[in-house]
Design brief:
Blueprint: E1 2-11, E2 14-24, E3 29-33, H1 40-47, E4 55-60, E5 63-64, H2 69-75, E6 76-78, H3 91-99, H4 108-114, H5 130-141, E7 148-152, H6 160-175, E8 179-183, H7 187-193, E9 196-201, E10 204-209, H8 211-216, E11 222-227, H9 234-238, E12 243-248, E13 253-258, H10 261-275, E14 283-285, H11 289-297
Parallel strand pairs: 3-8, 3-9, 6-7, 7-8
Antiparallel strand pairs: 1-2, 1-4, 4-5, 9-10, 11-13, 11-14, 12-13
Helix pairs in contact: 5-6
Bound molecules: adenosine-5'-triphosphate.
GO molecular function: ATP binding; ATP hydrolysis activity
Domain ABC transporter: 2-227
Family: Belongs to the ABC transporter superfamily.
Protein backbone atom coordinates (compact mmCIF):
# COMPACT_ATOMS: atom_id res chain seq x y z
CA UNK A 1 0.00 0.00 0.00
CA UNK A 2 1.07 3.59 -0.60
CA UNK A 3 0.35 5.82 2.40
CA UNK A 4 0.53 9.59 2.02
CA UNK A 5 0.14 11.76 5.13
CA UNK A 6 0.00 15.55 5.42
CA UNK A 7 2.01 16.02 2.24
CA UNK A 8 2.89 19.69 1.74
CA UNK A 9 4.89 21.58 -0.88
CA UNK A 10 5.64 25.30 -0.88
CA UNK A 11 7.21 27.51 -3.49
CA UNK A 12 8.15 30.75 -1.78
CA UNK A 13 4.98 32.19 -0.26
CA UNK A 14 2.73 29.78 -2.22
CA UNK A 15 1.64 26.47 -0.74
CA UNK A 16 0.80 24.42 -3.84
CA UNK A 17 0.08 21.12 -2.04
CA UNK A 18 -1.66 21.71 1.27
CA UNK A 19 -1.19 18.83 3.70
CA UNK A 20 -2.98 16.12 1.73
CA UNK A 21 -3.45 12.55 2.98
CA UNK A 22 -4.60 9.48 1.07
CA UNK A 23 -3.85 5.80 0.50
CA UNK A 24 -3.40 3.91 -2.75
CA UNK A 25 -4.09 0.18 -2.53
CA UNK A 26 -1.91 -2.47 -4.11
CA UNK A 27 -3.01 -3.34 -7.67
CA UNK A 28 -5.27 -0.33 -7.85
CA UNK A 29 -5.68 2.02 -10.81
CA UNK A 30 -5.78 5.34 -8.99
CA UNK A 31 -6.78 8.47 -10.89
CA UNK A 32 -5.89 12.06 -10.06
CA UNK A 33 -8.16 14.73 -11.46
CA UNK A 34 -8.07 18.46 -11.04
CA UNK A 35 -7.92 21.70 -12.98
CA UNK A 36 -4.58 23.05 -14.21
CA UNK A 37 -2.41 24.05 -11.28
CA UNK A 38 -4.34 21.90 -8.77
CA UNK A 39 -1.09 20.23 -7.67
CA UNK A 40 -1.44 16.80 -9.32
CA UNK A 41 1.98 16.74 -10.97
CA UNK A 42 3.68 18.14 -7.86
CA UNK A 43 2.03 15.42 -5.76
CA UNK A 44 2.96 12.65 -8.19
CA UNK A 45 6.54 13.91 -8.41
CA UNK A 46 6.88 13.98 -4.62
CA UNK A 47 5.75 10.34 -4.48
CA UNK A 48 8.18 9.52 -7.31
CA UNK A 49 11.03 11.01 -5.24
CA UNK A 50 11.66 13.78 -7.78
CA UNK A 51 10.59 16.68 -5.56
CA UNK A 52 11.19 16.92 -1.84
CA UNK A 53 8.12 17.65 0.27
CA UNK A 54 8.32 20.45 2.84
CA UNK A 55 6.20 18.42 5.23
CA UNK A 56 4.51 15.09 5.47
CA UNK A 57 5.31 11.44 4.91
CA UNK A 58 5.23 8.97 2.02
CA UNK A 59 5.29 5.24 2.67
CA UNK A 60 5.63 3.21 -0.49
CA UNK A 61 5.16 -0.47 0.32
CA UNK A 62 7.22 -0.05 3.48
CA UNK A 63 9.86 2.26 1.98
CA UNK A 64 10.14 5.81 3.35
CA UNK A 65 9.69 7.92 0.25
CA UNK A 66 11.00 11.12 1.86
CA UNK A 67 14.21 9.68 3.36
CA UNK A 68 14.94 6.94 0.80
CA UNK A 69 14.07 8.40 -2.62
CA UNK A 70 16.74 6.22 -4.26
CA UNK A 71 15.03 3.03 -3.05
CA UNK A 72 11.73 4.39 -4.35
CA UNK A 73 13.20 4.91 -7.81
CA UNK A 74 13.96 1.19 -8.15
CA UNK A 75 10.34 0.33 -7.33
CA UNK A 76 8.62 2.74 -9.67
CA UNK A 77 8.25 3.33 -13.39
CA UNK A 78 7.46 6.78 -14.73
CA UNK A 79 6.06 7.21 -18.20
CA UNK A 80 8.14 9.68 -20.18
CA UNK A 81 6.42 12.38 -22.14
CA UNK A 82 6.44 10.88 -25.63
CA UNK A 83 8.35 13.97 -26.81
CA UNK A 84 11.28 12.79 -24.68
CA UNK A 85 11.83 9.64 -26.81
CA UNK A 86 14.88 9.38 -29.07
CA UNK A 87 13.45 9.80 -32.56
CA UNK A 88 16.41 8.31 -34.43
CA UNK A 89 16.53 5.04 -32.51
CA UNK A 90 14.36 2.10 -33.51
CA UNK A 91 11.75 0.73 -31.12
CA UNK A 92 13.97 -2.23 -30.28
CA UNK A 93 17.06 -0.04 -29.77
CA UNK A 94 15.08 2.23 -27.44
CA UNK A 95 14.03 -0.67 -25.24
CA UNK A 96 17.57 -2.09 -25.23
CA UNK A 97 19.02 1.30 -24.30
CA UNK A 98 16.66 1.65 -21.34
CA UNK A 99 17.25 -1.97 -20.31
CA UNK A 100 21.00 -1.23 -20.17
CA UNK A 101 20.37 1.34 -17.39
CA UNK A 102 19.24 -1.38 -14.96
CA UNK A 103 21.03 -4.36 -13.41
CA UNK A 104 18.03 -6.51 -14.28
CA UNK A 105 15.56 -5.91 -17.07
CA UNK A 106 12.68 -7.66 -18.79
CA UNK A 107 13.37 -9.30 -22.16
CA UNK A 108 12.98 -6.99 -25.15
CA UNK A 109 10.91 -9.59 -27.03
CA UNK A 110 8.52 -9.88 -24.07
CA UNK A 111 8.03 -6.10 -23.93
CA UNK A 112 7.54 -5.82 -27.70
CA UNK A 113 4.81 -8.43 -27.46
CA UNK A 114 3.15 -7.05 -24.34
CA UNK A 115 2.87 -3.57 -25.88
CA UNK A 116 1.90 -4.76 -29.39
CA UNK A 117 5.04 -3.33 -30.94
CA UNK A 118 6.54 -6.48 -32.55
CA UNK A 119 5.77 -5.33 -36.08
CA UNK A 120 7.37 -1.96 -35.36
CA UNK A 121 10.54 -3.20 -33.68
CA UNK A 122 12.84 -2.03 -36.50
CA UNK A 123 10.99 1.22 -37.21
CA UNK A 124 12.51 4.48 -36.08
CA UNK A 125 10.59 6.13 -33.26
CA UNK A 126 9.93 9.22 -35.38
CA UNK A 127 7.81 7.09 -37.73
CA UNK A 128 5.46 5.77 -35.02
CA UNK A 129 1.85 6.90 -34.61
CA UNK A 130 0.78 8.76 -31.46
CA UNK A 131 -0.63 5.59 -29.88
CA UNK A 132 2.51 3.57 -30.70
CA UNK A 133 4.72 6.27 -29.18
CA UNK A 134 2.66 6.23 -25.99
CA UNK A 135 2.83 2.44 -25.80
CA UNK A 136 6.60 2.62 -26.26
CA UNK A 137 6.86 5.31 -23.55
CA UNK A 138 5.04 2.99 -21.14
CA UNK A 139 7.09 -0.05 -22.23
CA UNK A 140 10.25 1.93 -21.37
CA UNK A 141 8.77 2.79 -17.96
CA UNK A 142 8.34 -0.90 -17.11
CA UNK A 143 11.65 -2.23 -18.48
CA UNK A 144 12.87 -2.86 -14.90
CA UNK A 145 9.64 -4.56 -13.83
CA UNK A 146 8.48 -1.88 -11.35
CA UNK A 147 5.76 -2.42 -8.79
CA UNK A 148 4.23 1.05 -9.15
CA UNK A 149 3.68 2.95 -12.40
CA UNK A 150 2.99 6.65 -12.84
CA UNK A 151 1.24 7.83 -15.98
CA UNK A 152 0.81 11.56 -16.57
CA UNK A 153 -2.11 12.11 -18.96
CA UNK A 154 -1.27 8.96 -20.94
CA UNK A 155 -3.92 9.36 -23.63
CA UNK A 156 -3.86 13.10 -24.29
CA UNK A 157 -4.02 13.73 -28.01
CA UNK A 158 -4.80 10.12 -28.99
CA UNK A 159 -7.71 9.16 -31.23
CA UNK A 160 -10.51 7.06 -29.65
CA UNK A 161 -9.17 3.73 -30.95
CA UNK A 162 -5.61 4.41 -29.75
CA UNK A 163 -7.04 5.56 -26.41
CA UNK A 164 -8.96 2.31 -25.93
CA UNK A 165 -5.85 0.30 -26.88
CA UNK A 166 -3.92 2.18 -24.22
CA UNK A 167 -6.62 1.45 -21.62
CA UNK A 168 -6.11 -2.25 -22.39
CA UNK A 169 -2.38 -1.79 -21.74
CA UNK A 170 -3.15 -0.16 -18.37
CA UNK A 171 -5.57 -2.96 -17.39
CA UNK A 172 -2.92 -5.50 -18.37
CA UNK A 173 -0.30 -3.80 -16.18
CA UNK A 174 -2.73 -3.91 -13.27
CA UNK A 175 -3.55 -7.57 -13.92
CA UNK A 176 0.17 -8.31 -13.74
CA UNK A 177 0.00 -7.13 -10.13
CA UNK A 178 1.16 -3.53 -10.51
CA UNK A 179 -0.26 -0.40 -8.91
CA UNK A 180 -0.99 2.48 -11.27
CA UNK A 181 -1.31 6.16 -10.44
CA UNK A 182 -2.42 8.31 -13.35
CA UNK A 183 -3.56 11.82 -14.04
CA UNK A 184 -6.05 12.52 -16.78
CA UNK A 185 -8.12 15.31 -18.20
CA UNK A 186 -10.69 12.90 -19.60
CA UNK A 187 -13.67 12.15 -17.38
CA UNK A 188 -14.75 9.15 -19.44
CA UNK A 189 -11.26 7.73 -19.04
CA UNK A 190 -11.37 8.16 -15.26
CA UNK A 191 -14.80 6.50 -15.08
CA UNK A 192 -13.81 3.49 -17.17
CA UNK A 193 -10.23 3.01 -16.08
CA UNK A 194 -9.90 4.01 -12.44
CA UNK A 195 -10.84 1.98 -9.39
CA UNK A 196 -10.78 5.18 -7.36
CA UNK A 197 -10.46 8.83 -8.26
CA UNK A 198 -8.95 11.67 -6.22
CA UNK A 199 -10.19 15.14 -7.09
CA UNK A 200 -7.72 17.92 -6.27
CA UNK A 201 -8.35 21.64 -6.37
CA UNK A 202 -6.00 24.50 -5.40
CA UNK A 203 -3.56 22.21 -3.60
CA UNK A 204 -6.23 20.45 -1.57
CA UNK A 205 -7.60 16.96 -1.87
CA UNK A 206 -11.38 17.21 -2.06
CA UNK A 207 -11.78 13.46 -1.54
CA UNK A 208 -10.97 10.01 -2.91
CA UNK A 209 -13.89 7.84 -4.03
CA UNK A 210 -14.89 5.23 -6.56
CA UNK A 211 -16.21 6.89 -9.75
CA UNK A 212 -19.72 5.51 -9.07
CA UNK A 213 -19.64 6.89 -5.51
CA UNK A 214 -18.69 10.36 -6.72
CA UNK A 215 -21.64 10.21 -9.09
CA UNK A 216 -24.08 8.78 -6.54
CA UNK A 217 -23.29 11.63 -4.17
CA UNK A 218 -24.31 14.02 -6.86
CA UNK A 219 -27.42 12.15 -7.88
CA UNK A 220 -29.66 15.23 -7.99
CA UNK A 221 -27.79 15.98 -11.20
CA UNK A 222 -29.97 13.35 -12.91
CA UNK A 223 -32.31 15.08 -15.29
CA UNK A 224 -35.51 14.27 -17.16
CA UNK A 225 -36.54 16.56 -20.01
CA UNK A 226 -39.68 16.76 -22.15
CA UNK A 227 -41.81 19.32 -23.94
CA UNK A 228 -44.69 21.01 -22.14
CA UNK A 229 -46.35 24.23 -23.22
CA UNK A 230 -48.74 24.60 -20.28
CA UNK A 231 -47.06 26.28 -17.30
CA UNK A 232 -49.95 25.56 -14.96
CA UNK A 233 -48.71 21.97 -14.52
CA UNK A 234 -45.38 23.03 -12.98
CA UNK A 235 -46.49 22.87 -9.28
CA UNK A 236 -47.79 19.32 -9.85
CA UNK A 237 -44.47 18.25 -11.38
CA UNK A 238 -42.68 19.56 -8.29
CA UNK A 239 -44.64 17.00 -6.22
CA UNK A 240 -43.59 13.94 -8.25
CA UNK A 241 -41.45 11.65 -6.11
CA UNK A 242 -37.72 12.31 -6.16
CA UNK A 243 -38.00 15.67 -7.92
CA UNK A 244 -35.66 18.28 -6.42
CA UNK A 245 -36.14 21.05 -8.96
CA UNK A 246 -38.31 21.92 -11.98
CA UNK A 247 -37.27 24.32 -14.75
CA UNK A 248 -39.08 25.50 -17.86
CA UNK A 249 -37.07 26.93 -20.78
CA UNK A 250 -38.31 29.47 -23.30
CA UNK A 251 -38.57 26.70 -25.89
CA UNK A 252 -41.12 24.86 -23.66
CA UNK A 253 -38.64 22.24 -22.47
CA UNK A 254 -39.24 21.15 -18.89
CA UNK A 255 -36.24 19.83 -16.92
CA UNK A 256 -36.89 17.81 -13.78
CA UNK A 257 -33.88 17.33 -11.48
CA UNK A 258 -34.17 14.17 -9.47
CA UNK A 259 -32.21 12.05 -7.04
CA UNK A 260 -34.31 8.95 -7.88
CA UNK A 261 -34.24 8.74 -11.65
CA UNK A 262 -36.24 5.53 -12.24
CA UNK A 263 -38.85 6.27 -9.59
CA UNK A 264 -39.41 9.81 -10.87
CA UNK A 265 -39.61 8.56 -14.44
CA UNK A 266 -42.26 5.94 -13.73
CA UNK A 267 -44.34 8.38 -11.62
CA UNK A 268 -44.04 11.00 -14.36
CA UNK A 269 -45.31 8.56 -16.99
CA UNK A 270 -48.32 7.65 -14.80
CA UNK A 271 -49.04 11.32 -14.16
CA UNK A 272 -48.85 12.19 -17.87
CA UNK A 273 -51.17 9.30 -18.75
CA UNK A 274 -53.76 10.56 -16.28
CA UNK A 275 -53.58 14.05 -17.77
CA UNK A 276 -53.48 12.79 -21.38
CA UNK A 277 -50.22 14.62 -21.97
CA UNK A 278 -47.91 13.14 -24.63
CA UNK A 279 -44.43 13.79 -23.04
CA UNK A 280 -42.96 14.64 -26.42
CA UNK A 281 -39.18 14.72 -26.63
CA UNK A 282 -38.78 12.70 -23.43
CA UNK A 283 -35.12 12.21 -22.51
CA UNK A 284 -32.99 11.43 -19.45
CA UNK A 285 -29.47 12.31 -18.49
CA UNK A 286 -27.65 10.72 -15.56
CA UNK A 287 -24.86 12.51 -13.70
CA UNK A 288 -21.32 11.93 -14.95
CA UNK A 289 -17.96 12.47 -13.35
CA UNK A 290 -17.86 15.67 -15.38
CA UNK A 291 -20.83 16.98 -13.33
CA UNK A 292 -19.07 15.91 -10.14
CA UNK A 293 -15.96 17.79 -11.15
CA UNK A 294 -17.92 20.90 -12.02
CA UNK A 295 -19.80 20.80 -8.72
CA UNK A 296 -16.60 20.47 -6.67
CA UNK A 297 -14.20 22.74 -8.52
CA UNK A 298 -16.47 25.16 -10.36
CA UNK A 299 -14.71 24.28 -13.61
CA UNK A 300 -15.45 21.97 -16.52
CA UNK A 301 -12.64 19.47 -16.91
CA UNK A 302 -13.11 19.34 -20.66
CA UNK A 303 -12.32 23.07 -20.81
CA UNK A 304 -9.31 23.20 -18.50
N1 LIG B 1 9.09 24.68 -9.71
C1 LIG B 1 8.05 25.46 -9.38
N2 LIG B 1 8.23 26.70 -8.88
C2 LIG B 1 7.17 27.47 -8.53
N3 LIG B 1 5.89 27.10 -8.66
C3 LIG B 1 5.64 25.89 -9.16
C4 LIG B 1 6.70 25.00 -9.56
N4 LIG B 1 6.14 23.86 -10.02
C5 LIG B 1 4.79 24.03 -9.94
N5 LIG B 1 4.50 25.24 -9.42
C6 LIG B 1 3.14 25.76 -9.17
O1 LIG B 1 2.47 24.82 -8.37
C7 LIG B 1 1.09 24.75 -8.71
C8 LIG B 1 0.70 23.30 -8.96
O2 LIG B 1 1.29 22.85 -10.17
P1 LIG B 1 1.14 21.36 -10.74
O3 LIG B 1 1.96 21.28 -11.98
O4 LIG B 1 1.43 20.39 -9.66
O5 LIG B 1 -0.40 21.32 -11.08
P2 LIG B 1 -1.19 20.24 -11.92
O6 LIG B 1 -2.41 19.95 -11.13
O7 LIG B 1 -0.32 19.09 -12.26
O8 LIG B 1 -1.58 21.04 -13.23
P3 LIG B 1 -1.60 20.56 -14.78
O9 LIG B 1 -2.92 19.88 -14.99
O10 LIG B 1 -1.51 21.87 -15.50
O11 LIG B 1 -0.42 19.67 -15.02
C9 LIG B 1 0.90 25.66 -9.91
O12 LIG B 1 0.36 26.88 -9.45
C10 LIG B 1 2.31 25.87 -10.42
O13 LIG B 1 2.44 27.14 -11.01
Amino acid sequence: MIRIRQLTKRYGPHTVVKGISFDVQEQEIFGMLGPNGAGKTTTMEMIEGLRKPDEGSIDLFGVDGVRQPQSVKAMIGVQLQSTALFDHLTVKESIELYASFYPQARKTSELLQAFHLQEKENDRVKHLSGGQRQRLAIALAVVHDPKVIFLDEPTTGLDPKARRDLWDVVFQLRDEGRTIILSTHYMEEAEILCDRVAIMNKGEMIDVRKPAEWIRNLSSQNRITFLLSDKTYLPELQRISGVTDVKLDQDDTVTLHTNELSETLSDLILWAKEKHLPLNGLGTRTATLEDVFLAHTGERLSEV
